[in-house]
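During the reporting period the student researcher (J.K.) took over the structure-prediction task from the postdoctoral fellow and processed the backlog of single-chain submissions. One of the processed entries is reproduced below for the supervisory committee.
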Amino acid sequence: MKFRQLVTAILLATTVSSGPAVARSMEQRRAALVVTIRRQVRAETLKADDAQLSRALGALAAVPREEFVPPEYRRYAYESQMSLPIGYDQTISDPYVVALMTAAANLPDDANVLDVGTGSGYQAAVLAKIARRVTSIEIVEPLATSARERLARLGYGNVEVRAGDGYAGAPDRAPFDAIIVAAGSDKVPQALVDQLRVGGRIVMPVGATWASEQILVMTKTGPTTLDTCSLGWAMFVPLTGRGQRPPWARGMLNQDIRLCYGDAVVSPVFVRKLPQPEKVRSRRRKGIAE
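J.K. obtained the following structure tokens:
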């Protein structure tokens, strides 16, 4: 009995002492992530290392990304160029792309922002650190529900998560200073253009096919006009619902679109296949069917 009490005391002491250590480790990894992303951006072009990037990186440094990825993938939470699965054939965008898309949105003070494709809520949380109000829309209802609960638990009171098709936007919250779309389509939804204020920006992956997408930065210069530039080639999960590409879509990368910084700052990163989570490997070792 005494031996068991001793073991229990040791385990409790280890658990208590490891908690702050783990928290410090995550904070250190977030700080290192900011340094890594800035270095990677500078390697592409110094022009992109500007005040807006600094604001975006400041937001990334304040958001605990490990809270937005499944527990089995938390070890990869601070890999700068690794998107991660979050279920329902969706992913959480990699921090490098989130930083650049947030910076490209050029958020004014007191910004009102629309985030299409909530996923686990990470992009919305980053935006919430800069903007006054964020309206985030997710078409997969279970993801919308879990993201809403997660953001509320973490204290992001200026984010409203809605379940629905982001193609239609949120006209009752318009006009928006910026709109960020985290899924690819062959066109920009007209509803989003209509809900953007003049001078505002839409940042969205657009291409005839999944393999020919570019992250476009579109500044609204008039009621019906957009000035467009590209951050570079990227591959996102596809927009579903009304914005889904037709299955027969064909097309090549449009190289006539000017690059926002004179050089591409994004390109597809083909990472090694993620190892299976331990619980899945364990089930298979035991012969349990998926």
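The committee noted the following: Helices lie at 2-44, 51-62, 95-104, 122-128, 141-153, 190-195, 278-285.
J.K. will present the remaining backlog at the next meeting.
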